[in-house]
Amino acid sequence: FLLSYRAFMTPDSLAELLACRLVQSFLDTSESMAMECIKVRTFVFIRNWIRNYYDIDFCDGETSEILLESI
């Protein structure tokens, strides 16, 4: 996914969607296993994105600001 998503969305829009997903999972007060999986998988995805594609998607600073502001 991280190799091909740029064909249909920008890094900023992906960051906004991931940030919304992560924030929503923390706002849900249920302690369900599904919510825990969403939190972990979203965090791991963001971590891998930053680790492996920093030079491509985060060098301008806007994408990282979107993630940091929402988290």
Walkthrough of the structure:
This protein has 71 residues and is mainly alpha-helical. It is 72% helix and 0% strand. Helix 1 runs antiparallel to helix 2 and helix 1 packs parallel to helix 3. It is elongated, with a radius of gyration of 13 Å. The mean pLDDT is 86.
SSE layout and pairings?
Elements: H1 11-27, H2 33-57, H3 62-70
Helix pairs in contact: 1-2, 1-3
Keywords:
71 residues, mainly alpha
Continuous helix count: 3
Q: Kindly state the number of beta strands.
A: 0
Please give the alpha-carbon distance between the first and last residues.
Answer: 22 Å
Give the percentage of residues in beta strands: under 5%
- The average pLDDT value, as a whole number, equals 86
H-E string: HHH
CA-atom Rg in angstroms: 13 Å
Described by strand count, sense and barrel closure, the largest sheet is: none
Structural class: mainly alpha
Residue stretches low in confidence (pLDDT < 50, at least 5 long) are: none
| Helix fraction bin | over 70%
Shape: elongated
In short:
The protein has three helices and no strands. By secondary structure, the protein is mainly α.
